[in-house]
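Per reviewer request, we include the raw input and output of the structure prediction for the construct analysed in the revised manuscript.
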Amino acid sequence: MNRFYGAMLVCMLAGCNGAPGTDTKASNSQADSEPRVTVSDGDLQGRTLQSGVTAFLGVPYAASTGGENRWRPPQPVAAWQGVRDATHFGPDCLQLPPPSMKAPWGPEFLTDNDMSEDCLSLNIWMPSTRSDNKVPVLVWIHGGAFIGGAGGIDIYHGDKLAEQGIIVVTINYRLDVFGFAGHPELATESDYEGQYGLLDQVAAIKWVQKNIEAFGGDPDNVTVAGQSAGADSVHALMAHPEAEKLFAKAIAQSGSGMGITHPDRAKAESLGLALQQVLNADNIAAMRALPGKEILENVLNIPVPMAIMQFRPVRDGNFSKQRSNKNISLLTGFTGNENSYFLPEWHVETEDDLRGVIKANMVDDTVTDAMVKLYLQEADTPQNAALQFLRDRALMSLLNWAEQYHDAANILAYQFDYVPPGPPEGFGSFHSSEIPYVFGQLDAGDRQYSDADKALSELLQNHWLAFIKSGKDKVIAGDDWPALASGQLLVVGKEGNAAAEPVLTEDKIQLFEESLAAGGTLGMFSAEGFH
């Protein structure tokens, strides 16, 4: 079990720590000529990149979260005097490094940056050409299983998208025990125990609403986006009562209805009490007095399986899992092989192995037998049949979520089947593999991207940009991408083409529905996955 969750941790950390990239610091000789912007807390000095895009990095949107501010809603930033340097990324929020294991995510997904509890900052990339027209804004929430990640990671750099007429904002937010701990004492302080990281995200978006016009942005055309844990965050934000005041559209990559479970307040409080015990602290005040690094390291000593993975958002109240604002247009989808990193752990080599994977999710024996037969007819090996089943399970979960909580006429769905080049090989269209294409960041890392990859990146950017730039009440991402209500999604094929195809066949939908009626489960990962 520990081995499995270790693998899961690495997977969900695709896009983990963000570090300063090259081309982000201004020299003293350039200082006087660099761009400046005045925001609500003072003046900022950014940097003009070689492409002409202007970057303002490491901009604080809330105060330090250490000491007395630990496990409290984000506090206001103190205004500063003079001009604040905004030419480099701020520290990442405190987090443990991922384990060293073979995985499809290269250095462009995982980097090494300073960490601090004074980490609530955001990064802004704006077009080189200013006009009288306000430009659309994309706010990106990083993934990382809620235990890792940062807004400054290489593949999240927003310069390539900004070149095409939008403003890109990436953010940091509190993680793991600092972002999502509960405790009986915290429950007496506010209604937000277990939700501090989500409150950070709300604070960042409110900062954008208040200040983005100074950068030429349109506060009425903000799209909030994220991948994996960032996508789950997007859904939490769509549940917020003020959602429509915060943003107009949303993007959830890997994805919607992904099947992540969230602790209730009772579980969050029990974890907090267990943390208090291993810290040998008398109360929350004593826990706030401890160094953050000591707290983080002691999470590993909590006597529950993979305790580091248990601190996730409490999804109730303003962030209820049972609610979504249907007026917010949504672009969402999955990669074709979200599970490719984990499947070898299940040794799917035979028909019986395949039956075990399906039965763990579908429960009902009759449905399981029918699905085994169906998927073996479609695939050339039991392992590929399992991958196909898990892909379809995620898509059915999306359909089920849309039917319950959203409006399929206001959703654009995609499936990314294209296989990026290695190293390493063998993981297919793995979890988060579409992100470098969407951001246009194919020069980062060691992958041998070709002209075909660059053409695909341009295609995906065109689709995503059409959605980001479209009006608040329109679902637009190209003429060949119909809304989910049509029963179709955009499939990015293995040859790099993109075309509308049916989400699922009717016989598959019927089998999944029969399974749900019998107590089966849906989601992005298997029943043994990220819960």
